[in-house]
Backbone:
């Protein structure tokens, strides 16, 4: 069973915001303090697109097909997770944390796992595939503790 130790860094994130929490106590009675938060302004794809998708000739006289346009909104979400993995690496390398718990949406967790440096992975106690960014801190404490107890 994984346990929350004193000074464990808990990162709660989705594809647009991240909350960095520090556990001030122990596993029995977790007490998270907000250390920092990150966010990005990511307008909808239609607001980020420069123009309508291109068209190309199709087989047949006078036929044209639309081409898929780049989904800028999704690219920004992936970039946010990659940027966060870089930030975690810098903090791990600087010795800012010894233990790490991440709670993130499954999609974001997948991108993070692919991007995290082995130094960060070595400090990872558990990753939790849940979106908790809109929960109050006391509920996050309860949910994280329950997830660790169940592991």
Residues:
């Amino acid at each position: 069973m994984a346990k929350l130790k004193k000074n464990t860094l808990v990162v709660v994130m989705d594809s647009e915001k991240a909350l960095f929490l520090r556990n001030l106590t122990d596993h029995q009675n977790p007490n998270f303090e907000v250390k920092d938060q990150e966010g990005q302004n990511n307008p909808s794809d239609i607001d980020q697109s420069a123009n309508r998708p291109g068209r190309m000739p199709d087989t047949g006289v006078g036929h044209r097909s639309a081409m898929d346009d780049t989904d800028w909104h999704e690219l920004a979400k992936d970039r946010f997770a990659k940027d966060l993995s870089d930030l975690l690496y810098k903090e791990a390398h600087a010795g800012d944390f010894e233990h790490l718990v991440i709670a993130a949406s499954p999609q974001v967790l997948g991108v993070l796992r692919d991007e995290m440096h082995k130094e960060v992975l070595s400090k990872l106690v558990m990753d939790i595939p849940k979106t908790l960014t809109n929960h109050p801190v006391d509920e996050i404490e309860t949910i994280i503790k329950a997830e660790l107890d169940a592991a």
